[in-house]
Design goal:
By secondary structure, the protein is an alpha/beta fold. About 35% of the residues lie in helices and about 25% in strands. Strands 6-7-8-3-9-10 form a six-stranded mixed sheet, with helices on both faces. The longest helix is centred in the C-terminal third of the chain and has 16 residues, at about 175-190.
Length: about 240
């Protein structure tokens, strides 16, 4: 697919960030996400991929650079304020409340608009029948793939325009990972733009419109996902060919 030229829904420009004042994991990273897109971020361990999502979601404040959602600066704002603007983040770990039921997890996901929770939960159950079947079960009883679906469903409770996913297939068996990627594609088809950090580079680029490859906290390659998947260096390093 060709590069889109419409104004970006999410724009990251020149972001430098880390976990302390002297720490620079990101060294000037750029990223754009258009409405209707899936963008995948891949790269070696330690490249700063997850750090980038945390900056966008408000869990880390950038030292320099800007993050804009619909043209509005959000860099450094509290996560709750960013979520209220239409951006939801699903971290790789600790993304559900294990001792709570599936329904209670969804209620937690709808904390910003509790009066809308009941109708939104029913919508979630209609979209994800597996969650409806297990609505009264504790989240800890779910399979790994089902927990990831629940984590994404919790994020969808705020009806986001942008969904950030950090390593959604990590630790899943191949079949569960395939089903999860199908779920991600279905969420995108419902109109949610997605920025995804993913260890499975092949699937990440297959799903995405555009891709970003980070190396040592910097943009290494950027372009249409299909072109990146055909790039010999990308194939050799990330796709195992």
């Amino acid at each position: 697919m060709g590069l889109l030229t419409t104004p970006a829904l999410l724009m990251v420009e020149g972001v430098i960030a880390g976990y302390s004042a002297a720490d620079e994991i990101l060294k000037g990273v750029d990223l754009t996400l258009q409405a209707g897109e899936i963008v995948s971020v891949i790269g070696p361990n330690g490249a700063g991929k997850s750090t980038l999502l945390k900056v966008i979601a408000g869990l880390l404040t950038p030292h320099h650079g800007s993050v804009r959602l619909r043209g509005e600066a959000i860099g450094g704002r509290p996560p709750r304020a960013i979520s209220a603007l239409g951006l939801a983040f699903v971290p790789q770990e600790q993304n559900v409340f294990s001792s709570m039921t599936v329904r209670e997890n969804l209620e937690m996901g709808g904390f910003l608009e509790p009066r809308q929770s009941r109708s939104r939960i029913e919508g979630i159950f209609a979209r994800f029948p597996v969650l409806a079947e297990k609505r009264r079960q504790a989240a800890r009883t779910l399979s790994g793939g089902q927990r990831q679906v629940l984590a994404m469903a919790m994020a969808l409770m705020v009806e986001p325009a942008v969904l950030l996913l950090d390593e959604p297939s990590a630790g899943l068996a191949p079949r569960a990972a395939r089903q999860l990627f199908e779920t991600i594609a279905a969420i995108h088809a419902d109109g949610v733009a997605i920025a995804m950090v993913e260890q499975n580079a092949r699937e990440a680029l297959r799903l995405a419109h555009r891709g970003y490859i980070l190396v040592d906290g910097r943009n290494s390659l950027t372009g249409p996902a299909a072109e990146l998947a055909r790039n010999p260096d990308v194939q050799r390093i990330f796709l195992g060919r």
